[in-house]
C-alpha cells in the first residue's frame, strides 16, 4: 500500500480561466511614469498568475532605454493596503509583493509566482526617460474545482443565504488546488482540521471526491513513526509531514474517512485506510489515560481564542471521533476492534459527563470556564439525551461565555445547534456570523472574524491574515444540506 | 540589400562558461536567517546569469513553511556599494538589484536577468521559522568573444602593460554580446563611437569580424530617412534606431568600414556599404556649410568634459573621416565621388588650419579655449606636415589645457601621439591613465576615469557609472599593434 504513490496518481489537473479586471484600469492614453499608481479590481477573489501588458511612449519614438521598475501588491482585502510597516509574527515573505525590474517593457510582464487576490496595486518606482501606457491585464485563475458541477441554488432562495453560499463556494474553489489548501495566500498547506470541513462542503458543491481521497492518502502516507498523523502536510515546495502533532486534527482523519464513505460508498477505501484511522483512537485514548483520564490539552487546537480552557471540547472531540470510528468498524473492523472502540467510548464519556453542570445545563472546562467550544463539542459527542442536548444549546444561546473567534470553531457551533434541533438558531448564527463578513465587503470568507474588531489577528498584524480560508467555507454545506436539501 | 536581415543572419552564438566565486562563501554549516548577509567575490568581472543554491534547516526537520526573501545586489566595483540613496539622473532601474520571494528555497534559485559584476551581496530580508545554509553559487558567464583566439602576449612583456592588456581584453570580452555593447551593466546599446574603438581592438584580440559586420549592417539598416546614421542602435528589448544624431558618430561609420576592410580585405562589403558611408560625408559637409564653414558643435559628442569647446575637434573628425572615405572610394567609389570628397576635404581643412595658433604650436577652439581634444583631432586630421604635428603634440604634453575625462577621448590622444612619432609618450600616457585605473582595483576599464576624483560621474552619482565600458578597451589595441607588433 504505497499511499504516496496513490496520492500522486490522483494529482488533479488545474482548471484555468482567464479573468480581467472590472475596474481601476487607467485610460488607454494615460502616460505613466515614476510614482504613478493604479489599483485594479478583479471584481472577485481569484488565485492564479498575473500578466500585465504595457506599451512604451517616448519622445522621438525612441525605444525604452532602461529597464522598467514595477511594484505589484496583491490584496485579498483592501485592509491589507495599510502602508504601515509589518509587525506580525509570521514571516512577512507571505505578504504578496513583487518588485520587478523588467528588461522588456514591450512584452507581456508575466509574474512567475501564484497570488491570491481580488485587487492588485501597480506602481512604477523608478525614473525613466519614457512613459508607459496601460494595455491589458489578466489573471489565469486556477482551481481543481469544476464550477460546472456546483448546482445553482433554487429560485427564491433567501437572498442573504444565496450571497453567503456564493462566498462559501468561492472560498472553497480558491482553496482547491493540488490539495485542499488552508489558504491560497498564506500557508498553502493541507491541514487535517481544514480538510474535514472542506471535504464536507465539497460533497455538496464541487464533488471532487478524488481530491479528498488524495489528501487522505497524503496524510496516511506521511504518518509519524508511531502511526500518529501529522496536523498538516507540506505539499510544496517539498512533500513532507509537519512535525507538529494535534490530537484533534489526527482524530478528524476518522471523520474525513467516514464522510468520504457516506459520499462515495467506497468500502475498499475504508478497508485500506482503516488501520490508520483506528491507530488515531489508540493514540488519543492512551494520551487520555496517561494524563489521568483527562485530555492533554497542549495537543489540541480547538480554536485561536486566547486563554481558552480546552479540556471539555477535547474530550468531546475524542468521543465524537470514537463514534465515527465505530461507524467505520462496521465496514472494516474486526469484532475485537469494535469491542475495543466501545470500551474507549465508555472510558472517555464519563470524564466528559463529569464536566456537565446540570444546574446551568452547561458544560464547564476543568477550570470552571464556560465556553461555546465546550458546549458544542459535548453535544456533538452525544453523551446526553436529545432533550438535554437541546437544553444545553438553548442555555448556550442565552449565556455569556467565551466565543469562538474563527469561522472554523463557529462551524461546530452551528452543527451542534442543528444536532440539538435548533436549526433556525443555527441559520440565524450563519446569517449573523458569515453574513457579517459579507457586510465587511468580503467576496469570500476569512480565517478570522471577530465582530467589532477588524484588526483581530492571531499573528499580531491583520495584513498577514488569510482572507480566503478553507475552514470558513461551510455555510455552503449547511445551506445546501439543511436548507435546500440536496 | 536587406541590411537588417543580413545583420540577423550574423547573430552570434554566445559562449557560456560556468564560474564560481573565489571568496566570500559562508561556511557550509553556517545557519543564516533574517539580516544575514554575505559578499561573494568572483575574482574578476563577468557578464551572465547567476544561480544560488541553498539548503533549508528547520527544527523538527520540518519543511520550509514560507517563501524565502532574498536580496541580491551586484557590483562591478565595490564603490557601488554605498548604502546611500541614489541621486543620479539616469534611471535607477539600471542599478543591479533583485528582490526575490522564492517559493522553493530547496531548488536552485536562478535569477532571470543578466548581470555584469565581480561581486554579489546576498542578504536574507524576512523573518522565517527556518534557517538556510549556503551550498553553491555560480554564474553562467556569456560573451560572443572566443578567448582561445586571443594570442597571449610574448614572454617578457612589461608586467604593467601585460596587466593593462589583460584588463583591456576582459573589458572587450564582456562588452561582446549579441552586439558590441557600450557597457554590459548599463545601456547595453550599440553606439557607433564605441563600436569604432571596439572593432579596432577586436582585430588584435578576439577577431570576431562577423560581429563588426553585423553591427555595420545594423547601423546601415536603421539609418534615418535622410540617410544619416543614428548615434546608437537599441538591440534589446526592441531593435530600433536611436533618434539622437551625432555627426562625429555617424562619420565614424566610415572609419569602422575602412578598418574592417583593412582587417578582412572584403571589398564586397565596402561596395555594399559605400553609399551609406558616402552619405555621411555629404550630410556633415552640408551642415558645415550651413553653419558658415564651422562645425555645428551641438551635433558632436567629442567627450563628456563640461564646457568643452568642440569646434576644432569636430572639424578634425570631419577631415579625418573624409580622408578615410577617400581611402574607401578607391575600392568602391566613382571618380566623381572621389572628386567630391577631395573638394570637401579642401573645403573643411582651411577652417581647421585657421584655428591653428602657430606661436604656441597649438590649436584653439573658436572661443580661444585650449584642449587636448583640439590637438589630437587636428593631428589625426593630418592638416599639418609631420614635423609640425610633432611640435603640436610636444606642446600639448607641456601645456596645461582641458583634459579628456573619458578613456574614449584619451584613446585619440594616444593615437595622435603615436601618429606624431611620440610612441614612448603615448605608452607613458597608457601606463599612467589605464594603469591608474588598475591601481583603483579595477579588473576592467570603466566609462569614466578622473585621477583624484573617484566620485566623478557624468550622471550625478558614481553608482550608476559603468565600470566595464567598451570605449575604454583600447590599450590592448595599442599594446598589441604598436608594442608587440602583431
Instruction: List the helices and strands of chain A in order.
Output: HEEEEEEEHEHHEEHHHHEEHHHHH
Q: Which segments of chain A are poorly predicted (pLDDT under 50) over 5 or more consecutive residues?
A: none
Distance, first to last CA of chain A: 35 Å
User: Can you name the CATH architecture of the largest domain in chain A?
Assistant: Alpha/alpha barrel
CATH topology of the largest domain in chain A: Glycosyltransferase
Radius of gyration of chain A, rounded?
Answer: 25 Å
CATH class of the largest domain in chain A: Mainly Alpha
Count the domains of chain A: 2
Overall pLDDT confidence of chain A: 97
Helix content of chain A: 40-55%
Which oligomerization state do the chains in this entry correspond to? Answer: homodimer
Biggest β-sheet of chain A, characterized?
Answer: 7 strands, antiparallel
How would you describe what is shown here?
The structure is a homodimer of 486-residue chains. Chain A contains 13 helices and 12 strands. With 486 residues, chain A is an alpha+beta fold. Chain A has 2 domains: 21-143, Galactose-binding domain-like (Jelly Rolls), CATH 2.60.120.260; 155-484, Glycosyltransferase (Alpha/alpha barrel). In chain A, a hairpin with a 4-residue loop joins strand 11 and strand 12 (362-363). In chain A, helix 4 runs antiparallel to helix 5 and helix 6 (267-290) runs antiparallel to helix 7. Chain A is elongated and about 85 Å long. Chain A starts with a helix and ends with a helix. Chain A binds chain B through residues 59-69, 90-94, 97-99, 101, 103-107, 112-113, 126-129, 187, 189, 234, 236-238, 240, 242-244, and chain B through 59-69, 90-94, 97-99, 101, 103-107, 112-113, 126-129, 187, 189, 234, 236-238, 240, 242-244.
